[in-house]
Specification:
The chain has 13 helices and eight strands. By secondary structure, the chain is α/β, with parallel strands linked by helices. The protein has one domain: Aldolase class I (TIM Barrel), CATH 3.20.20.
């Protein structure tokens, strides 16, 4: 990108941000809640047999805490939560919460295909000390709005800690619109949404139409900077597993008003995303961590690890970025 075009884009985003701050909407206010910043969607190290490896999980969590992340989202998509048994998900949640203690806020993803297991996981997360739980919209069977609201009502009333809606249409098969989110947010214990729709217009509409002040967290890694500029609180990031420094630096640059620096960091993040692209899910993120000397285990079947040839090509791509590899 040419320097003059970069400057124009930065100026445009600053103007947009200033305009949004003047809007008297019913959405979030920056600095009004404790769920801000960078939250890696933490990978789960598995053995070759598909069992959770608690020792490696502790080391991965500590690596990220040392890099300055603000918290974790565990058992989510990149954490392979939907592939785990209820018992495995409980083990992951309690291991991370115990390991990081007060050093970082842990949001436990409790969402499943059914309400009963979602409640069970949410209650367990609260008992173990999670700061909040996330609940993905049910996948496979797709409830109508009435069923969806009832699902979130039962889940949110089962615990006393905050509950986040989790919208990821690429995995669930349907999108939670701003209107649906607004309806669900009428429930007292629903405090916000993690939105991975990659739709900035929808993100802003969620903020403007919510029935109360909510926390809005972006889930699209290639849109962190523009999402922050339109008012989101932070990022739950799968790619932050591989390069947490870039995400932490971007967020801090944004908060400091260093928008040109934040934009350059976004470009670095997008370069990492491209390097990890075109490979089976989850495996390249774990391989990138392994290439940094942090054991991340195997993916859980039916996902597969990378072949030696794939790892070699990935190593070359990452080394060419002159970042951490």
């Amino acid at each position: 990108m040419e320097p003059n075009r970069t400057t124009v884009k930065v100026q445009a985003l600053i103007i947009l941000k200033q305009g949004m701050n003047k809007i008297g909407n019913r959405g979030i206010e920056m600095g009004s809640n404790k769920f801000q910043g960078i939250f890696p969607a933490l990978v789960t190290p598995f053995t070759r047999e598909g069992e959770v490896n608690p020792e490696e999980l502790r080391r991965v969590a500590c690596f990220h805490v040392e890099k300055g992340v603000d918290g974790f989202f565990v058992c989510g998509t990149v954490g392979e939560g939907p592939l785990m048994s209820v018992g495995q998900r409980k083990l992951v949640a309690e291991t991370v919460i115990e390991e990081v203690g007060s050093r970082a806020s842990v949001i436990v993803h409790a969402g499943t295909t059914n309400t009963a297991e979602t409640v069970e996981l949410a209650k367990h997360a609260e008992e173990r000390g999670a700061r909040a739980v996330g609940v993905v919209s049910p996948y496979y069977f797709k409830p109508d709005l009435e069923g969806l609201v009832e699902h979130y009502r039962i889940a949110s009333e089962s615990v006393g800690i905050p509950v986040f809606i989790y919208n990821i249409p690429s995995m669930t098969g349907f999108n939670l619109t701003a209107q649906m989110v607004a309806k669900i947010c009428e429930l007292p214990n629903i405090i916000g949404v993690k939105d991975s729709s990659r739709d900035l217009i929808q993100l802003r509409e969620i903020m403007e139409t919510a029935p109360k002040k909510i926390t809005v967290i972006n889930g699209a890694d290639n849109l962190i900077f523009p999402a922050l500029m339109i008012g989101v609180d932070g990022q739950i990031s799968g790619m932050a597993n591989a390069a947490p420094e870039l995400f932490v630096q971007l967020y801090r640059a944004y908060k400091a008003g260093e928008h040109s620096k934040a934009l350059e960091l976004q470009k670095d993040i997008n370069s990492v995303i491209r390097a990890l692209g075109g490979l089976p899910p989850i495996a390249p993120i774990k391989a990138a961590l392994e290439l940094r000397g942090i054991g991340a285990g195997f993916p859980k079947r039916p996902l597969r690890p990378l072949t030696p040839d794939e790892v070699g090509k990935l190593k070359e791509k990452l080394a060419a970025l002159n970042l951490f590899w």
